[in-house]
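Journal club prep, notes for RB
We'll compare a predicted complex against what the paper describes. Inputs for the S-adenosyl-L-homocysteine case:
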Amino acid sequence: MHKTFVAESNKGMVEYLLGAGYADARVADAMLSMDRKAFVPPQYAEHAYDDYPLPIGYGQTISAPSIVAVMSKELDVRKGMKILEVGAGSGYQAAVLSYLVGETGKVLTIERLSGVAELAKRNLANLGVKNVEVIYGDGTKGWQPEAPFDRVIVTAASPDIPKPLAEQLKEGGKLIIPVGSTYWQDLVLIEKKGGALIRKDFLPVMFVPLIGEHGFKE
Ligand code: SAH
C-alpha cells in the first residue's frame, strides 16, 4: 500500500487511486461523489485525502482510501443490490457502496459502538445519503430480518469467517473480510457457489478487531 501518498483534493486522491489500479472507473465515480473530508474529524481535515487511515474517536479508524477502493472494486457491486456492512465506523465505506448500488439498492451497516453509530448516521445525513441504514449492534451475527444479501463486507479484523455472515449470503453472492490476528490480516474474498464457499486470499492488511459473538472476544 502507498500509505504515504498525499493529495490536496478529493479529485486528486481519486486520480491517484485510479492510476495506481486500486479503483476502477465505477468505484472512482463513487469516490468522487462522496468527499472523504465529510467523514474525517475536523482536526484531521488537512489529511482527508492522504492514503492512510485516520482516527475517528472511540479508538476506531476510517480506513485508508486505497483499502476502501480495493474492497469496493473486488466486491463487484451492481445497481439494485442489497449489501450488509459490518463496522460502520465513519460511514465512508457505506457511502461509497450506496453510490454503487444506486437508488434502487440498499446498504445496511452495523456498528457495535453506539457513539460511532451516531457518528456514521450524522456523516451520512450531512452528505444527503438516503439508501444507507445504520444499525447499532453486534454485526458478527449478521442481520436476519433483511437477509439474504447480494454482498457482505466486513471492515474489521476477524479470526475467521463468522458463520451467520456466510449463511446470510445469497447463492452467487460475494463476501469480503480481513481474516487473521488482531495485528495483521489477509483480505479474503468469498464467493458462494452451489452452496459452497470459494475462498481467495489476496492482500495483507491491518484493521481494528471485530469484537463480538462470532469474532474476537472482548
Ligand atoms: N468502514 C469504516 C471503518 C471501520 S473501522 C469506515 O468506512 O470508516 C471498524 C469498525 O468496526 C469500528 O467502528 C468498530 O467499532 C466496528 N466493529 C467492531 N466489531 C464489530 C461488530 N461485532 N459489529 C459491528 N461493528 C463492529
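Talking point for the session: The CA atoms of residues 211 and 217 lie 6 Å apart.
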